[in-house]
Design brief:
Length: 281
């Protein structure tokens, strides 16, 4: 009887871990993901990578119209959108669509007001408990750092080459693969009720989130394809930006530093030759 109860508790604990945590490293869930993340040709990848601002703006649109219904961006402020080419007026109008709690006022009472550019992105839920309750026990994670937190290790010897190519798109690759990886489970797959099979999920073979993207779900203004595949690429790139908004500047700075070090090393070399040439004579 005791052993039976322990087994039941273990199964329940495993299910909760898959639902609630849903983002452990590949080592935490042995054998997962079943399929390795797909490799996408991102504009920001590599030593000379840069942001595709148009793609990031489309990604914001996908996040706003699809992802924001469940997922927050707690670490991002509306004013950060200035880096995506939006004007102060556009940012103010976008922020004003949401309300934040503020106060206390002169009467000592809290009140709500339209969000301002200096405010953080307003999440869909008041607190974590409300989020879990609204999603059947599964907690939709904050997306601010998701592209860095969900990076899947590429294994040996691939990671050796990644060092030299400065490959750092594991996170966006994973998010894109997950969003486009929903499929019917094979006959031998054991999928719990209420979960959705996805062989790219890092913590199991299924997750609580159903497929969120479909063709013609979001309208684009720039003529980009309105397909689930394009939506997945755009929002994955956007989440990489939210996780590391200074990536572009960091790469430019790094290039200048490397160039300086090369010139400095050359000067040291010729100085050494000159000094030792005088000594040898």
């Amino acid at each position: 009887m005791i052993i039976s109860r322990l087994k039941t508790a273990l199964v329940a604990a495993t299910a909760v871990a898959v639902l609630v945590l849903g983002g452990l490293s590949a080592h935490a869930a042995s054998g997962y993901p079943i399929n390795k993340p797909k490799n996408v040709d991102w504009s920001f990848n590599g030593p000379f990578g840069h942001w595709d601002v148009g793609q990031l703006q489309r990604g914001l649109k996908v996040y706003t119209e699809v992802c924001a219904a469940c997922h927050s961006l707690n670490l991002m402020s509306y004013r950060n959108l200035e880096d995506l080419g939006y004007t102060g007026t556009q940012i103010s109008n976008y922020a004003a669509e949401y309300e934040v709690e503020d106060g206390p006022n002169d009467d000592g009472e809290m009140f709500t007001r339209p969000a301002e550019p200096t405010d953080r992105f307003v999440g869909p839920y008041a607190n974590k408990q409300e989020a879990i309750s609204a999603n059947g026990g599964a907690y939709p994670p904050d997306m601010s750092l998701l592209a860095k937190a969900r990076a899947v290790e590429r294994g040996f010897p691939t990671f050796i080459f990644d060092i030299f190519t400065m490959y750092a798109a594991n996170g966006p690759d994973y998010i894109y693969s997950l969003l486009t990886g929903y499929q019917d489970p094979p006959e031998d797959a054991d999928v719990l009720d209420g979960l959705h099979y996805n062989p790219y999920f890092i913590a199991g073979n299924a997750l609580a989130m159903s497929n969120p993207l479909f063709d013609e779900l979001v309208t684009y203004d720039d003529g980009a394809p309105e397909t689930a595949d394009q939506y997945a690429k755009d929002v994955s790139a956007f989440l990489m930006w939210t996780a590391e908004p200074n990536l572009d500047e960091r790469k430019k700075r790094g290039f200048v530093v490397v160039l300086f070090l090369l010139v400095f090393a050359g000067l040291l070399y010729f100085t050494k030759k000159k000094v030792w040439a005088d000594v040898s004579h």
